[in-house]
Design brief:
16 strands; Rossmann fold; about 500 residues; 5-stranded parallel beta sheet; binds pyridoxal-5'-phosphate; 6-stranded mixed beta sheet
Length: about 500
């Protein structure tokens, strides 16, 4: 199966080529040239097997230059008991209609582990398959969750070094501690005196600096990134929607072929796009509900057909969805309207920050997706209500998802499926202060003390990877200026 660009002028490559390069040469994103199919009979068969086996079966349809045995071995390592104790993506019953797909049982307690535990293994194989003999230097700018998940995924991986940069005052104390105590012999972490944009621009500048690229090459290295537009991050996300369906089927909660609706809290449109691909493959899915926080650019887009990022940016208690550029939306436009139309929209977006899709395309999108959003008081209320009603504790991002699923059920009435699968993207303990404040209506203690307080308040256990963070050894405490980013990068190669 070949991979081509969403903008139509990026040539053709293998899956390994797409995973190694990340972005197509015309600036577009890589997509498989066709979407493989998944028969109802296959879904029933997958119901009987483990998560790693489900994953290898789905991945082998997309990554045809990887053998099934390679994929199975990688999936067993990525999603085994040692990294995901108790199962990779369990589904919980919350009331009559909602089925919550918990994606945060990995090493960093957020859903990015689902992709970033597997992608490094696919990446290393891609280096071998493409005959690459240089070492990859992966640079990541992070506002919190991606950096930690990437560090944990790439630690001690042969042929790779990774450096993460985060804005010194732009991440939570827990996130900072998670990164500062990172283990591994090929990792480096820097706090940058600036905001997330300064940090991200710093990384982009290094990537596009010909002098830097040459210095790296002379030392036997090349730059790579781990960001969410890489196909290697998207493809593992398709698996868990299929797996959730298999679980419901196995439990007799649905019958074979019965449709479910899926609701995903998203910013980048990556996680919900993966659910759409699962539907296009043949998974029986009715509506896809796109859940946003107060930064509701996607809700507006789905309702009006106009994508306009000329608007205020809000800092919310679901910070991993505080995004105004939903990069993966480009993949949906491509699938529904083709590469010429997509290239035009993307040109308008970069020139004026805005584009408006054709009526035909707006209608096509509307058949598949519904958009809802949840503001800050709504998020707090949902956390409280779901806890009081069901004794089920959710984080701020998952609460946005649940609120939107409930709004959808109310509005769709009879048209909704019997079951709505809601993606839960982080442990409640990862955003313990906000969750505590939502439940108690009073200020939470700061940092690790908030985790203790939440645990005492609810009688639940602190998610294992987050427990005892304040007792771990701090390995990285360097704070640098944005202008120092190139020099510290070169220092790494000595
Ligand atoms: C990254 C993240 C999201 C948003 O994911 P998308 O890639 O934008 O779909 C949601 N919740 C949490 C906790 C995250 O870390």
């Amino acid at each position: 199966m070949d991979y081509i660009s969403t903008r139509g002028n990026g040539g053709r490559t293998t899956a390994a080529g797409a995973i190694k390069t990340g972005l197509a040469s015309d600036g577009g994103l890589f997509m498989p040239q066709s979407i493989p199919s998944l028969e109802v009979g296959e879904i029933s068969k997958l119901s009987g097997v483990s998560y790693p086996e489900r994953a290898a079966a789905v991945l082998s349809k997309f990554l045809t230059d990887y053998t099934y045995d390679e994929l199975l071995s990688d999936c067993r390592e990525a999603y085994g008991e040692s990294r995901f104790p108790g199962g990779a993506a369990p589904v919980r019953t919350v009331g009559d209609r909602l089925r919550v797909l918990e994606l945060w049982h990995g090493p960093t307690a957020a859903f990015k582990d689902m992709a970033l535990q597997l992608m490094p293994r696919l990446f290393v194989r891609a280096l071998r398959k493409t005959g690459e003999d240089k070492t990859a230097l992966i640079l990541v700018a992070t506002s919190g969750d991606t950096g930690k998940a990437a560090l944990e995924g790439y630690r001690d991986v042969d042929g790779v070094r990774i450096a993460v940069f985060y804005p010194v005052d732009g991440v939570s104390r827990v996130q900072k501690l998670q990164m500062a105590t990172q283990e591994g012999n090929n990792v480096e972490v820097f706090a940058v005196r600036g905001n997330f944009d300064d940090t991200q621009n710093g990384v982009k500048r290094i990537f596009s600096d010909a002098g830097m690229v040459k210095s790296l090459s002379d030392r036997g290295y090349f730059f790579s990134s781990a960001n969410s537009i890489n196909w290697g991050r998207l493809v593992p996300q398709i698996v868990y929607y299929i797996s959730a369906y298999c679980d419901l089927l196995e439990n007799g909660d649905i019958s074979a072929g019965e449709k479910v609706d899926i609701c995903v809290p998203t910013g980048n449109f990556g996680n919900i796009f993966a659910a759409y691909i699962a539907k296009r493959m043949g998974l029986p899915v009715g509506r896809l509900v796109c859940a946003s926080n107060r930064n509701n650019i996607l809700t507006d887009f789905l309702r009006t057909g106009i994508y306009d990022r000329n608007r205020d940016f809000h800092t919310t208690m679901s910070p991993s969805m505080d995004i105004l550029i939903s990069s993966n939306l480009e993949r949906l436009l491509y699938l529904l309207a083709g590469s010429d139309e997509t290239a035009g929209y993307m040109k308008r977006l970069s020139e004026s920050g805005r584009y408006s899709v054709s009526d035909a395309l707006k209608n096509e999108i509307g058949k598949e997706f519904a958009g809802y959003f949840c503001d800050e008081p709504g998020t707090a209320r949902t956390i409280r209500d779901i806890y009081n009603e069901y004794g089920y504790l959710v984080d701020t991002h998952s609460a946005v998802g649940i609120s939107c699923a409930l709004q959808y059920l109310e509005e769709a009435g009879e048209k909704a499926a019997k079951r709505v699968i809601v993606a839960s993207t982080a442990s409640p303990y990862k955003f313990a202060s906000s969750v505590y404040e939502s439940l108690k209506n009073e200020k939470a203690p700061d940092g690790p003390a908030a985790l203790e307080a939440l645990s005492r308040l609810t009688g639940t256990e602190i998610t294992a990877p987050l427990a005892g963070l304040d007792k771990k050894q701090v390995r990285f405490s360097r704070v640098i200026e944005p202008g120092d980013m190139p020099s510290v990068t070169l220092e790494l190669l000595k």
